[in-house]
Amino acid sequence: MFSLAFDHLHDTPQIHETYNIIVMASSDKALSDAIRNAVRRMFMGPDRDNLTVNKIREQVETELHLHAGYLKQGSWKQESKSIVKTESVITLLLSCCLTYSLKLLSLFVGKASPTRGGW
Q: Sign (positive/negative) of CA torsion 41, 44, 48, 53?
């Protein structure tokens, strides 16, 4: 009886529109995150030389059970391309920073440790 009193609310356009916006916003974030994660995985893996926008799109479409070509349509075409390129640069920079930080750390630890009369 209680639920019947509010059943009419589910039929209002405002609630449907709000619900669709919320669902689209969360699914857009999930899709963007999946693209970023795919870039990081491929960049750090053995297939680094095969990292292309199309490979990432295909991988994400498969992982998320989207129809083939979904990320090549509409606003996702440019958005996915932008995310892949941006995330590739960020991952490269972070990878380089980490690599050189570890090299510097090994130099300091190797040459100037307290046990070797350093510091």
A: positive
Q: Quick one: 81 exposed, middle or buried, by C-beta within 10 A (0-12, 13-18, 19+)?
A: middle
55-86 pLDDT per residue, tens = 999 999 999 988 899 999 999 999 999 999 99
Prediction pTM value: 0.66
Distance CA 101, CA 112 (A): 16
Cβ atoms of residues 119 and 113 within 8 Å: yes
Contact indicator for 61, 67 with CB cutoff of 8 Å: yes
